[in-house]
């Protein structure tokens, strides 16, 4: 994994990148040292600056240093990620190009020269965010992988474009007062628990959407935002057959492909079906693996016994760490602040801790992320489906009462009144996007009126615009929710969480359950096949019947979450949701004065 930062000037006769600007660029690049502590490089001409921080994984020699410049065309590449099929592509390109390294970066550079941006993106399999600058034609290309595993922020000014792996680099580069906070992003955060793509905390900075690339004509000061891949054609496209056997084989292939590295690798192992299946698949490919898990000093949330069950079965070198309430309280603010904009997933804390544990032993870790979205594993799918089908609805004036009861019990063992209030909301009060937002832990529209008024959000503003963009009414209800999560919650929460937490300790994480083949396989089967025997992730479970202990396959799903109710006093305690607390504690200057937490 790496970090990149760059600036490109717009117009026919742009102001040159001078010494003072280059110094600012360099300072911005070095805010990403944690993403690439092994080496750094920069390239510039009168129009553009391209910088790169390197975490050396494949071909750790100096031949892999970036930015990388193509000898024939002069194209300049800065790239973050891994291309897993680079060896096959290299073999195709070797007829036309002489390679000086064994890196996947050089494959990208030659591939762009031969196939162009669309041809390249259609061929590569992996996780990536990259910038390619063409100094001859005055064009800049910015691209992001199909799922959004790797981040890319783009800043748009009157006279220049900035791009970076993390928002902090653009903030560091920008002149004081040139970035304006976006109140609608803060308002959205209260619903989604993250700032939804393409927005960022700032009005003039955007996240590039997954499966998109930007083609920017610097001389003409115009840009095109182009989608190069879509999940839609895969849905329900497969016929039934030996699906469990085929899935098991595809998972093994994906894990084998993503185990390629010139440095030590390991595996996150939570004890859930996803990470356990990845660990089991890896065991079929050779040497003894290193696995890592995090436990909690709260018995109700500690799952390390299940992780150790899988580790024992496959004789991994297993590492376990128990996170205490005191330690979580000490690091939570620093961890969440690292996301550079409001972020409400409290599991970022244990994700950081398991990444830190892994980074002490390996440089790369494979995870089980993506399994819930691709194979249908979230408990809220069933709850949403049941609630939506219920006929009886209570009047809306019950909602303020039920919210008070829920929040009052948010940091203590939930009393009967809170459990009743929650059940009333899910089953008889909320529906549609209100229900979905509540199931995801966000505030619904009517609960944000004070924020709306303070931030002057228009009355006709759509609180659920991101959900609405990816809500496919034509799909069966469970597949519909998977499709929605795949395009929203997965890239903006799950993958963002893991990327930033792991990069804090310079650890590369890979997600074999999100290979293109597995995504298209998972969504390609019918809903009945995916939920075989009426079970969440039924098909994935069936594929692992001979691979994992029955206790793993039959256990109730538990998310990778902290024991927040037990630890409430240590984690932004106030009786508000974790998201509200995050906003108040870290971004309190933007919060309505009457709602701010006491200092």
TrEMBL record:
InterPro entries associated with the record: Asn_synth_AEB, Asn_synthase, ASN_synthetase/amidase, AsnB_N, GATase_2_dom
Annotated Pfam families: Asn_synthase, GATase_7
Taxonomic superkingdom: Bacteria
Pathway(s) per entry: Amino-acid biosynthesis; L-asparagine biosynthesis; L-asparagine from L-aspartate (L-Gln route): step 1/1
Keyword check for Ubl conjugation: no
Reaction equations catalysed: L-aspartate + L-glutamine + ATP + H2O = L-asparagine + L-glutamate + AMP + diphosphate + H(+)
Stretches of the chain forming a coiled coil according to its record: none
Keywords: ATP-binding, Glutamine amidotransferase, Ligase, Nucleotide-binding
First-level EC class: ligase
PROSITE patterns in alphabetical order: GATASE_TYPE_2
Keyword Transcription regulation: no
EC numbers: 6.3.5.4
Ranges for domain Glutamine amidotransferase type-2: 2-219
GO molecular function: asparagine synthase (glutamine-hydrolyzing) activity
Sequence similarity: Belongs to the asparagine synthetase family.
UniProt protein name: asparagine synthase (glutamine-hydrolyzing)
């Amino acid at each position: 994994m790496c970090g990149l930062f760059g600036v490109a000037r717009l117009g026919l006769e742009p102001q040159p990148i001078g010494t003072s600007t280059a110094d600012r660029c360099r300072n911005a690049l070095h805010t990403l040292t944690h993403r690439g502590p092994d080496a750094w490089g920069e390239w510039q001409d009168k129009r553009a600056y391209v910088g790169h921080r390197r975490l050396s994984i494949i071909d750790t020699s100096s031949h892999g240093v970036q930015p990388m410049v193509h000898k024939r065309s002069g194209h300049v590449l800065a790239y973050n990620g891994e291309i897993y099929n680079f060896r096959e592509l290299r073999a195709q390109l070797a007829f036309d190009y002489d390679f000086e390294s064994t890196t996947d970066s050089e494959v990208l550079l030659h591939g762009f020269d031969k196939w162009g941006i669309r041809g390249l993106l259609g061929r590569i399999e992996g996780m990536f965010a990259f910038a390619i600058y063409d100094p001859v034609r005055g064009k800049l290309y910015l691209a992001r992988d199909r799922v959004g595993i790797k981040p890319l922020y783009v800043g748009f000014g009157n006279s220049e474009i900035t791009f970076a792996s993390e928002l902090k680099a653009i903030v560091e580069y920008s002149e004081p007062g040139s970035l304006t906070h976006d109140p609608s992003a803060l308002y959205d955060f209260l619903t989604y628990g993250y700032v939804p793509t393409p927005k960022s905390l700032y009005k003039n900075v955007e996240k590039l959407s997954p499966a998109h690339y930007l083609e920017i004509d610097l001389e003409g000061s115009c840009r095109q935002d182009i989608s190069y891949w879509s999940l839609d054609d895969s849905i329900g496209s497969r016929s039934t057959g030996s699906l469990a056997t085929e899935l098991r084989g595809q998972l093994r292939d994906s894990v084998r492909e993503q185990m390629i590295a010139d440095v030590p690798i390991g595996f996150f192992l939570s004890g859930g079906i996803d990470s356990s299946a990845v660990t089991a698949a890896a065991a079929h490919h050779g040497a003894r693996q290193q696995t890592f898990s995090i436990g909690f000093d709260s018995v109700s949330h500690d799952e390390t016994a299940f992780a150790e069950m899988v580790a024992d079965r496959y004789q991994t070198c297993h590492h376990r760490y128990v996170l205490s309430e005191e330690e979580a309280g000490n690091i939570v603010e620093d961890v969440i602040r690292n996301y550079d904009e409001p972020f409400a997933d409290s599991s970022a804390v244990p994700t950081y801790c398991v990444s830190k544990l892994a980074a002490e032993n390996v440089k790369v870790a494979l995870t089980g992320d993506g399994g819930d979205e691709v194979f249908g594993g979230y408990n809220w799918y069933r709850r949403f489906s049941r609630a939506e089908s219920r006929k009886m609805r209570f009047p809306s004036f019950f909602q303020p009462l039920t919210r008070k009861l829920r929040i009052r019990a948010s940091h203590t063992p939930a009393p009967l009144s809170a459990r009743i209030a929650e059940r009333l909301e899910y089953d008889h009060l909320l529906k549609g996007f209100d229900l979905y937002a509540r199931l995801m832990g966000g505030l619904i529209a009517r609960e944000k009126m004070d924020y709306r008024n303070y931030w002057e959000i228009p009355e006709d503003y759509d609180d659920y615009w991101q959900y609405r963009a990816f809500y496919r009414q034509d799909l069966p209800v469970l597949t519909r929710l998977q499709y929605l999560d795949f395009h929203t919650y997965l890239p903006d929460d799950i993958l963002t969480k893991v990327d930033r937490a792991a990069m804090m300790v310079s650890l590369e994480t890979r997600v074999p359950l999100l290979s293109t083949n597995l995504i298209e396989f998972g969504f390609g089967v019918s809903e009945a096949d995916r939920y075989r025997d009426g079970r969440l992730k039924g098909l994935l479970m069936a594929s692992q019947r001979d691979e994992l202990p029955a206790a793993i396959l039959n256990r109730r799903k538990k998310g990778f979450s902290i024991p927040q109710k037990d630890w409430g006093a240590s984690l932004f305690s106030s009786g508000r949701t974790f998201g509200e607390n995050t906003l108040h504690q870290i971004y309190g200057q933007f919060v309505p004065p009457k709602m701010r937490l006491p200092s």
